[in-house]
Amino acid sequence: MPVETVATGSGSLEPRMSPRFSLKNGARALGLAMERRRHPRRFIQTDKTPWDRIYQDGIMSVRHYSLPPMARIPVGDEMIPVERHQHRRPLLLVPALGIHCWTFDLMPNRSMVRYLMARGHDVYLIDWGQPSKADRELDLNTYVNHWLPAAVEAVRDHTGAEDINLLGYCMGGLLNLMYLGGHPGAPVHSLATIASPVNFHKSGPFGIVFSLAAIPAMQVHDWFQVRLEPLDSKLFHIPANLLSWGFKLTNPPGLVQSYVDLWRNSADRDYLTEYMTMGQWFNDMVDYPGAVVREVIEKLILANSLADGRIKLADHEVDFANVTQDLLAIGGTSDRIVTLRAARDILKVVGSSEKRFEEAPGGHAGVFAGSKAPAHTWRIIADWLAARG
Question: Signal peptide location in the record (predicted)?
Fold first, then answer.
């Protein structure tokens, strides 16, 4: 039987054996198709790890996770022993905007939350909520200078810890950087980032377009003082369905291949469960607040401010030279959205004396939560954090 490599968008599933067609397989596939249509939640295994809400401010909240009593946890096809010793510094996970926070807890055997707890970390997670058009005025200042400091303090209050560790994915990593760059002396010991684009003009084809567009755009800005800020934020607000399609279209061949592989494995319940769970990430995204999108376009994409290590948020000056925490940055080797060059430039702008960049297999989603992430990205992060208490 032929072996197929299964891909869902930028994430990846394990290679599967394509079964030969038979009446029995056909009947099973038909039954599963009907069940998927009538009871889709049976196949979607997201957000299954127990948690309690310890803090809330508007749509933002902070979760504290607990690992059910067990000696080992499943990670892919392996069983990972649960460490009895717990590290003294709590770990706060910061998700990207535009996605649900449960991407850190996709399914019981593909959960970064469970893996990190099994490795002895006390895990907390920010839930940015689900912004609607009514929340379109949410800007970077709100996330960086209000919600992130409040979340850090909530974790410290809950644990009694003097300082904490931070881990951010994609935009979550950038929010962490801006928070530390604008708050020297923040009670944070170390920072890890995954696929966070410090230099937007080096993100492959996207970076070329961004850099070419920036030249005339910045000239217009200098000549006529044209700014995006006065424009209504509703013009920039990105609804969830549009964001979802935009993400999928970053890899059209992978999207087509995923549907082909779905058809080939339509009689395999385990495959369908993993496929639909990973697919939920891309099919069920959340709105991107208009004010943030406007700032990202003007300050991060056109001006490429983060590559220079400085950005102004409202009246708050951010300087990445103020980031002196130990730093670990990870980039995906096949990431089309945030290339290795775009992520590696973080090393040029921070003031950390201890800083490290690692490459890990996977695209933008795969490096974070794909089938190879536990053995690479997750293991690297857990080992690095363990050495820092």
Answer: none
Tell me which amino acid residue 257 is. Answer: Q
> In one letter, which amino acid is 333?
T
pTM: 0.84
| Pick from 347, 274, 339: nearest CA to 307 | 347
What are 374's two structure tokens? 């536990």
The domain that contains 161 carries what CATH number? 3.40.50.1820
- pLDDT for 245 equals 75
Q: What is the pLDDT of residue 313?
A: 95
Task: Give the span between the Cα atoms of 103 and 284, in whole angstroms.
Answer: 11
Q: Give the pairing of strands 326-332 and 188-194.
A: parallel
Domain that residue 37 falls in:
3-41+240-282
Residues of the chain with pLDDT under 50: 1-11, 15, 17-18, 206-227
275 and 344: one domain?
no
3-class secondary structure, 246: helix
- Give the model's pLDDT for residue 357: 98
Q: How many helices (H) does the chain have, and how many strands (E)?
A: 15, 16
As for how many domains the chain has, the answer is 2
List the structure tokens of 341. Answer: 């060059």
State whether 258 and 220 are in the same domain: no
Question: From CA 372, how far away is CA 359, in angstroms rounded?
Answer: 12
DSSP letter (8 states) at residue 374: I
Residues 126-154: pLDDT tens digits? 999 999 989 989 999 999 999 999 999 99
Paired strand residues for 381: none
- Name which of 6, 24, 68, 75 is nearest 369 in CA terms: 75
Distance CA 48, CA 277 (A): 12
355 and 208 within one domain: yes
Distance CA 357, CA 326 (A): 12
